[in-house]
Specification:
The complex is a heterodimer of chains A (113) and B (113). Chain A has 113 residues and is mainly beta. Chain A has strands at residues 5-7, 10-13, 19-24, 31-37, 44-50, 53-57, 64-68, 74-78, 87-94, 103-104, 108-112. Chain A has no helices and eleven strands. Classes of the chains: A mainly beta (113), B mainly beta (113). The interface between A and B is medium-sized, with 33 and 26 residues.
């Protein structure tokens, strides 16, 4: 079975631009979460979606938004990019999310010039 | 506020040595604790998940323990190999926060041949 897939793998943007990152969960998983990992640190929680509804939001500005589609795939959007948004963006899926193992994709490496 | 700490930040051992990685957390109200492995520039690979009602989990050369009352978990790696070199992250899933994971900073392990 395919694992969590994320696209693109790498992305280079300039300050002020907007970016959309995509995630396809493991088949049968209805919960998708997004994390930001800055170099040398542990991942930080951004959003969780379950059955197309937002279940949780981390301490990130409103420039960050996400949504989940009927097929349970998800997009993360970041507007007005800043240099500090440069990071590895990770997507995780689980059957229901609550108290269950999270399975991660390989991430999207976002570089802001 | 839940905080997760991993000590040491980096560890270098000779091949064949048994080793222990430490993880501590400040709030015992958790569903579970999960250990992950991360290779450079890659996503997270789940190693072991311990539910809050469990004391330990084993997979091959890996054994993870959980002492919720003291807020501690350890990951024991037996007979270490150069292929074990990676960053190891622990994460807790707190109560009443959906499927959100709170991560430690990670321990970077280097196993020398």
């Amino acid at each position: 079975d395919a694992g969590v897939t994320q696209s693109p793998t790498h992305l280079i943007k300039t300050r002020g631009q907007q970016v959309t990152l995509r995630c396809s969960p493991i088949s049968g998983h209805k919960s998708v979460s997004w994390y930001q990992q800055v170099l040398g640190q542990g991942p930080q929680f951004i959003f969780q979606y379950y059955e197309k509804e937002e279940r949780g939001r981390g301490n990130f500005p409103d420039r960050f938004s996400a949504r989940q589609f009927p097929n349970y795939s998800s997009e993360l959007n970041v507007n007005a990019l800043l240099l500090g948004d440069s990071a590895l963006y990770l997507c995780a899926s689980s059957p229901r999310g609550l108290g269950q193992p999270q399975h991660f994709g390989d991430g999207t490496r976002l570089s802001i010039l | 506020k839940q905080e997760v700490t991993q000590i040491p930040a980096a560890l270098s051992v000779p091949e064949g040595e048994n080793l222990v990685l430490n993880c501590s957390f400040t709030d015992s109200a958790i569903y579970n604790l999960q250990w992950f492995r991360q290779d450079p520039g890659k996503g997270l690979t789940s190693l072991l998940l311990i539910q809050s009602s469990q004391r330990e989990q084993t997979s091959g050369r890996l054994n993870a323990s959980l002492d919720k009352s003291s807020g501690r978990s350890t990951l024991y790696i037996a007979a270490s190999q150069p292929g074990d070199s990676a960053t190891y992250l622990c994460a807790v899933n707190p109560y009443n926060q959906g499927g959100k994971l709170i991560f430690g900073q990670g321990t970077e392990l280097s196993v020398k041949p």
